[in-house]
Design goal:
With 317 residues, this protein is of the alpha/beta class. Helix content is 34%, strand content 23%.
Length: 317
């Protein structure tokens, strides 16, 4: 077997901008990709609370690939990303491994790109204020993806640790090159958080929380909430009442039934009917439109086809 080419994190960032990644994801859906064709994610607990091993394969008629990753909750304390991963892209003809990609970088790029597709459709044209719960790589990535599609002038980062929230806010402040951007970092128990959410047109939850991180009545009608923190059916970042009064969008209905805890728990509690849940493809194809008389919620768990779209482009670059 020929030695696969290696694409490191720096090459991923150099090759693909957040907005280019967003357009690639959107185009794949617009061209008719059916996310339901993805195999279910394989998850294995490592044991002793150390984390999980996940395997995410996908094919799209042009290529095949698989992301192998781990989720290690203890890694941030070690100075490492919570998610560690490698992506293996197979040769289109021989199906032999042809390209290996830093999977953590792929995840850090594609997750905000998917969210940005939803935000572009579900958020107001004018997004002056945004709130991001979480202070890790996804918080930074989502801020960058948002700034590529909206002229946002204020971003509040909410985290468990004040120093981490402020550090992430400071990094976000350097992302806006075309207009002034005000940022701040708050702790989750700061009374200013509720007011910030009530004023925001976009709210992102990118946390490891198992219970809701914001009040059910905090989000304004017409605002957009993106929840990306978990792919487990028993965990949630948003409460049932919030989902019950919102237009709810997921990547794929079947996948959401297995993994989207926010939606699963809201439906189980009678706050939401699965028949009223829409998909990202519905948004892209114009089968559903943004609500102005209630909040708009996009619950994302991450799917293998998204990684394959990014890896394919990197392999061609």
């Amino acid at each position: 077997m020929q030695q696969p080419r290696w694409v490191d994190a720096a090459a991923v960032r150099r090759t693909l901008s957040p907005d280019r990644a967003r357009r690639l994801i959107r185009r794949e859906l617009a061209d008719g990709l059916d996310p339901a064709s993805d195999p279910a994610r394989l998850v294995a607990d490592v044991g002793d609370g150390r984390g999980q091993l996940l395997v995410m394969p996908s094919t799209n008629g042009r290529a095949a690939g698989v992301k192998v990753l781990t989720v290690a909750p203890g890694n941030p304390a070690r100075g490492l990303d919570r998610i560690q991963a490698v992506y293996v892209l197979m040769d289109a003809d021989t199906l032999a491994p042809s390209v290996l990609v830093d999977g953590t970088a792929v995840t850090s790029l594609r997750t905000p790109a998917v969210s940005a597709v939803a935000i572009d459709a579900l958020a107001p044209e004018e997004v002056e204020s945004a709130v991001i719960f979480g202070s890790g790589p996804q918080a930074l990535g989502h801020a960058e993806a948002l700034l590529a599609i909206r002229h946002t002038t204020s971003v509040t980062v909410v985290g468990r640790r004040e120093d981490a929230a402020r550090a992430t806010a400071q990094r976000i402040s350097g992302l806006a090159s075309t207009h002034p951007l005000t940022t701040r970092g708050l702790t989750v128990d700061d009374p200013q958080v509720e007011a910030a959410v009530r004023e925001a047109q976009v709210v992102v939850t990118a946390t490891s929380a198992a219970t809701p991180v914001l009040g059910d009545d905090w989000v304004a009608d017409g605002a957009c909430v993106v929840a990306i923190g978990s792919h487990e059916p028993h965990r949630r970042e948003l409460g049932s009442a919030l989902l019950g009064r919102s237009l709810v969008v997921v990547e794929d209905i079947g996948t959401a039934h297995r993994e989207a805890g926010d939606v699963i728990l809201a439906a189980a509690q009678g706050a939401l009917d699965w028949a009223d849940v829409h998909t990202l493809a519905d948004l892209v194809h114009g089968r559903v439109e943004r609500a102005t008389d209630r909040p708009n919620v996009f619950k994302s768990v991450g799917m293998a086809w998204q990684d394959l779209v990014i890896a394919e482009h990197l392999a061609r670059a």
